[in-house]
Queue: 4 jobs
Job 1
Amino acid sequence: YLGGVSIFQFIVLAIMDTVEVFPLFWSWTVTNAVHCLVSIIYLHWIKGSLFDDQGEMAAMTLWEQLEGRPKTVGVKRALTIVPTLLCYAACHFSNYHYDVCVANIILWSILVAAKLPIMNGVRIFGINRTTGIDDYSEKED
């Protein structure tokens, strides 16, 4: 996981050094943004399990499947610490440039908010809901 993020960072650095459109310190922000996008899609958007197509896992995201399982505490910590370190690195290497810090803190806030226990099973504005499973208000009527 960390190796993949590092390799991506080196690729972004090489491209940004060649193109010379943006200052190099934006490379960490690009890495953070791509990491945020991939994490949101993989951990918090895609539902289901590779092993249980029709069971209770079918309506849960990967992050929701990790909730309540004792052996996944280390995994959840790593998946929370890495975005925090990417945000810090982006801010630090830009010498705390205002635009960079604002962009990275917004990305970090979105990613960490999605990982809060209170957000498990929450579908904001009905986005990414599973018809027939996430229809709590219709079941109560």
Note: Residues 137-141 have pLDDT under 50 and may be disordered.
Job 2
Amino acid sequence: MAVLEVVKYGNPILRKKCSMVTDFSKLSDFIDNMFYTMYEEEGIGLAANQVGVGMNLFVIDISHTDENEFPRIFVNGEIISSDDESIFSEGCLSIPQVALEVKRPENIVFKYQDIREKWHEEEFDGLLARAIQHEIDHLNSVLIIDLVSEMQRVRVNQEIKKIKKHSEAKLKQQSITKRFVL
């Protein structure tokens, strides 16, 4: 297994809506690498675009929490309905060292495929529902900073600017390197 690079705020892939998965034949190794990366980064969820791949796919593992869940894989997911709301502090692997109070529905009905292409529709609540919504937001180009008040954004603005500046510098360096390699 390989640790994949988690892209940071400022990378344009985080602001592009991800495509539906149509070819499931090569997902297994990629998903293994996504879980491995998520564990190395000490996250509970990871969307494909967070590792530079623009497909509608994410993984979640909250088994270490009180919610007694197992690691989950969601492909081509869509929230069908939601209700109730709560506010909870969320972090993001693509915006490290930043935590924001995000208001989200408490319960969702979620439609998705598994890696065998079978469709499922399930109800989720608690931390798993929140994590699913966070990752679906990633796949739809929405970040936690888009979901909070101006006051919260101002509070973390300096850190966000540093992350974006570093990400943009890295992209520029990669672009220069590619030109010399070609």
Note: The first strand starts at residue 45 and ends at 47.
Job 3
Amino acid sequence: HLEIFKNKDIEVLLLVNRIDEWLVSDLHEYGGKKLQSVAKGELDLSKIGAAANIESAGEDKKTEEDKSAKEELTDTIKKMKTVLADKVKEVRCSERLIDSPSCVITGEYDMSLYLQRMMTASGQNNMPRGKPILEVNPQNPLVLYLKNEPDEQKFAEWTNLLFEQALLAESGRLEDPAGFVKRVNSILLCNIGN
């Protein structure tokens, strides 16, 4: 989630204690600064850049390239959403990622996956469980490979793999760890043969 912020040299407050999400849900600003989670909702970099007084030569050109890359992935995003229909709320191109192929976030007003797990572990099984949003990096080679994959079964395997990798990176738990390992091994074996 922090790749774009590091790239643009924007300071981010890291809240890593278990109670932090509860605290921030009621504390919307501090010292005149609005608090916004980098792992929730849409990310509007124009507001962040303006607030941080960031100006960059060539930013307009980069914006046009990003827009073009996103348009080229429209069909791929729709296919990914179909594959992951029961697992995600949405699949979309990411504004957050520079290097990673994918990440999962939650809606702006949804509980994080971590908080959902904590509530379940404390016996709160009847709470509404939101589905994550999968964001993909339109510049990443794995996503570009997926865009050109004609085989529907391989497309589904790669899509699930990108989703599961993003869940693991988010410190999530996989519903089917054995299926994940089988997918990784299958993909590795296919590439060894080539």
Note: The two ends are 34 Å apart (CA to CA).
Job 4
Amino acid sequence: MRIIGIDPGLRHTGWGIVEFKNNKLIYIGDGTISPSTSISDGKRLFFIKSQLSEIISKYIPNKSAIEQIFVGFGAGSSLKLGMARGVSMSVLAESGLDITEIPPKLVKKTITGYGSASKQQITSMIEKLLSVLPKNEDSADALAIAISAHHIGDDYTASNLQQTNNSLDIAIAKALLKEKKKIIRFF
């Protein structure tokens, strides 16, 4: 199963692709779509659409996941995020991909075990899980979204999430344990 994760944004839309094969997590690719800020919003959205379509054509994922909207500091920024999210979802749907929508806190909890993890903690865990340094924070978030989509499955609830026990759970637990040991030794 090859999954593309999308961290939408009008300035930077992160993407990350992972594959799950024989209970192994394999890094495929990651990056960021960053349209020029000097062009109109409409042209920026078209740029995101075009670039995301090319990425999907190149990597041919079987499934997709996107972060649900997080309402931030202002209505304007939330609206722009919503536009980028809508264009991304449209491209994913046009490509025939099933779309899993995941709340940001659930992505953080799935990857780090902590629902309020920082971007640095997400990047660190992605590096440990995939043995690769993501290109930037946006693509690290997108990789985390893709991994979370597989981990939680298509129809998730809080109760069945806690009952899940697969190799990814074990890998995450081991990575967290190693990290805790490093912190303890440091002090």
Note: The chain has a mean pLDDT of 85.
